[in-house]
Amino acid sequence: MQTIPTIFRQDYCPYPFKISHLNLIFDLDAAHTHVHSEMLLTRVNPGSDLLLHADGLSLLSIHLDGRELSAVTDYVLNDDGLRVLNPPESFTLSIVTQTQPDQNSTLMGLYASNGNLFTQCEAEGFRKITYFPDRPDVMTQYTVELRADAEQYSVLLSNGNLVDEGVLDDGRHYAKWIDPFKKPSYLFALVAGKLVCQEEKFILASGREVLLQVWVEDGNLDKTQHAMESLKNSIRWDEQRFGLELDLDRFMIVAVSDFNMGAMENKGLNIFNTKYVLANSRVATDIDYANIESVVGHEYFHNWTGNRVTCQDWFQLSLKEGLTVFRDQEFSADMIGTDSGRAVSRIGDVRTLRQVQFSEDAGPMAHPVRPDSYVEINNFYTVTIYEKGAEVVRMYQTLLGRDGFRKGMDLYFARHDGCAVTCDDFRAAMADANGRDLAQFERWYSQAGTPVVTVKSHYDTDLQQYTLTLRQSCAPTPGQTDKSPFHIPVTVGLLDSNGQEMPLYLVGESSAQASCVLELTDIEQSFVFDRIPALPTPSLLRNFSAPVVLEYAYSDTELAHLLAHDSDAFNRWEAGQRLATQRLMQLIKSVQAGEALSLDSLYLEAVGLVLNDENLDPAFRELVLTLPSEAMLAELSAEIDPHAIHVAREYMRQQISAHMHKDFYQVYQANQTMGVYSPDAISAGKRGLKNLALAYLVSNDADEQMISLALTQVHEAQNMTDRLAALAVLVRTGDECAIEPLNDFYQDFADDALVIDKWFSLQASSPKTDVELVRQLMRHPDFNLHNPNRARSLIFSFCHANPVQFHAKDGSGYAFWAEQVLALNAINPQVAARLVRVLDHWRKYQPALQARMQDALLTVANSVGLSKDVQELVVKMLK
After folding, report:
1. Which pLDDT value is given to residue 25?
2. Which cofactor does it need (predicted)?
3. Which domain-ending residue is among 129, 159, 194?
4. What is the CATH number of the domain that holds 769?
5. Which contiguous run of DSSP H or E holds residue 345?
6. Annotated catalytic, 229?
7. DSSP alpha helices (H): ranges in 353-421?
8. Given 386, 620, 647, 751, which is the most exposed site by the fewest CB atoms within 10 A?
9. CATH label of the domain that carries residue 42
10. Number of domains in the chain
């Protein structure tokens, strides 16, 4: 393998030139696009040559103040870019380049998709368009003119405000856009093609009218209403919650089917994967609707947290992404509008964090929220940067309160609007606005790993005092052996024997609280509560107040008590998960030992009470009855045995089904949603609980009556949520009963790419689908490895969501993985790198599986032509 240079955070230096303005003219064509660039530069540091980045460009001409430069004496050209030698203090540089969008399979820079042209520039795609300092701290004002054939590219869009459009002398047409705000190159965007839009005029809180547009390909206009409503809700929420108003005359969303990511927050012109725009009841599930709302919100909120204030360098990526994930989480929770709904939203966020990010923290790719080095920045768009980064931001709000957090946000924008800054700048704003010392809190940015908080309790009957002793530790991670104590907020409550909240009086305090935030800053601290008349049951880490692993020796009785009574809905769910996990881990051991399997009645009775409690939100009941995933159980295992995990979890599902069969059937019937489909939280919650009940009812393959019930739901469903859920249940059985409904589903939706993605995915993720069936599905005429959504729907679903088959003992799943990583590496390195991460934890598996995984990793590592994206990951995993 070739040696690839590592970039270090400590080596950051400001760019030596200021670029006050950038004028771009695009002569657009799928085969050959010419880009005319004119930039106005002023030196800010003496004695430097001008370095401009490039990737795969053809340089046609270069002029400095009108003089054509010589490749012999004036500049040096290489694969990474252009060096202009000894430029003057102030000058105008004009460059003409050529690019080939229809040959760009990486989907970075300017590329073609279905006859249209799109850009994706984050993180370093702008260098595929023109020569420029492609780094986030170089902020400039853009004027962009797009020229193209009027029939083939009838719509011409770019950032900012449209200031002129018309017909050129040669019959082509043009559109001129000016973005009045400085931005870095990664936020540049253009779209050209045959598109249609839904548009609305919208009145901002200040009274200013703006134009909102959702652009899609013809035939998809009936699927844009939810995205439009989500955009309007996002704008209004940001005004009300943070006092932030849309700063342009228009805001545009454009949907494209070929896209590496979920969406991109380009200033005023957000480009989205169609998956996060298109929805109606026929083709989209409740989860699709929720995801669209969340992603639309996320990208809109970037307008301030990422665009108006951006990152000094890519090491600060979580400055914008972690903060904006937190904002979209809060938005989604507020859109539900109820306390139980907020809890359901929070539980979903934490499940993702524990299952994916905690796993990342424990593997070879563990890195801090603010990394110290990277080889390929695209590999650091990770759950640590996003989801753990969001938890770090949430801890500010937990420590400072909602009002204190808002004060910190206000100061952050007052200080840094229009600037490229650091995570430390954000922390300083929070500290200064609230008069708090948050120096120790910096360790959440600089130290990798998931802290473990061990809690012990003591009750003094005579003094009526209850003491909680908290101790923190954090395991070594790559490059970091010794960890200093974190600043950890631990929110606690105490329940009496009737399940009522005890008033909390910390020693030395006169006022009582129902919950209080304990600030753990040392390795070990004790907190004493006064006036506790009897031994309580502690409710610890309420609302998951910090991204840590909590260890406390709860008894089954205490967990059942919390599940039944805790006022903190998150901890009610957590108690149920602990009960389930304890039993599952024991079942796994029994499977491995060849012992008879059994499940005690305490757990069954505890979750049965939740299932039948109609006072609880249906969505919450669904979450309590959803067992920890096989991936979560693998994360908790010292040595991973995927087959034992699968057998244990299936046994527990069947036991729950058998014990509560009548209850599930009654819940199924009681939670039908009649009438016109609505994705609102109450209706979606009912459908979720009903479909969970159906999954349990059909978990016994021999029950023909329940299979008939699922078949009936498939045929009679009036929305995609119910049809897909019932179909998934049937496919999971591996029975022939699924063949006809699968074929019918395909025929009904053959022309809808997003639904066919679902068709591929539910087959790939079924535990009855082996690698040979996946290979067979890859030969289907609708499979296309070049389309990231399609690759994810089949290959990623099999490798990520079908552990029992992916980890086949003969290693066939790993050989398949290696083949697909190399095939994708040649097409789209970003997508290939995402697939590499499936084997992050290969060293934790049983020795026989480890050996086969290592063989697959070496097959990739020893291949010729590896991209930086793939090479960086494979090297780290094999160390």
Report:
1. 99
2. Zn(2+)
3. 194
4. 1.25.50.10
5. helix 339-352
6. no
7. 358-361, 383, 389-416
8. 751
9. 2.60.40.1730
10. 2
Q: With cut-offs at 50, 70 and 90, classify the pLDDT of residue 876.
A: very high
Q: Which of 531, 524, 487, 526 is nearest to 509 (CA)?
A: 531
Stated pTM of the model: 0.98
Given a contact cutoff of 8 angstroms between Cβ atoms, the answer to whether 178 and 127 are in contact is no
- Spot the catalytic one: 122, 124, 265, 299: 299
Bridge partners (DSSP) of residue 34 are: 27, 98
In this model, does residue 701 exceed pLDDT 70?
A: no
Strands 452-460 and 488-495: unpaired
Mean pLDDT check: name the lowest of 488-492, 680-684, 699-703, 760-764.
699-703
Pull the structure tokens for residue 743: 């074929």
Q: Write out the H or E segment, with its range, that includes residue 728.
A: helix 720-733
**Is there a domain that residue 549 lies in?**
no
Q: Report residue 493 CA to chain centroid gap.
A: 31
Q: What percent of the chain has pLDDT over 90?
A: 97
First to last CA, the chain: 14
| Amino acid found at 393 | V
Average pLDDT value over all residues in the chain: 97
Distance from the Cα of residue 642 to its chain's centroid? 25
User: Percent of the chain scored above 70 by pLDDT?
Assistant: 100
Residue 80 clears pLDDT 90, i.e. is over it: no
| Mean pLDDT, rounded, for 23-30 | 98
Q: Using CA atoms, how far apart are residues 738 and 796, in angstroms rounded to an integer?
A: 22
**150: domain range?**
7-194
pLDDT band, residue 2 (cuts 50/70/90): confident
> Is 815 part of any domain?
yes
For the record, the structure tokens of 568 come out as: 């903190």
Domain boundary among 170, 194, 218: 194
Cβ pair 116, 194 in contact under 8 A: yes
pLDDT in tens, 519-543: 999 999 999 999 999 999 999 999 9
d(CA 483, CA 488): 14
User: Which structure tokens are listed for 776?
Assistant: 């067979």
74 within a domain of the structure (yes/no): yes
Query: Residue 256: what pLDDT?
Result: 98
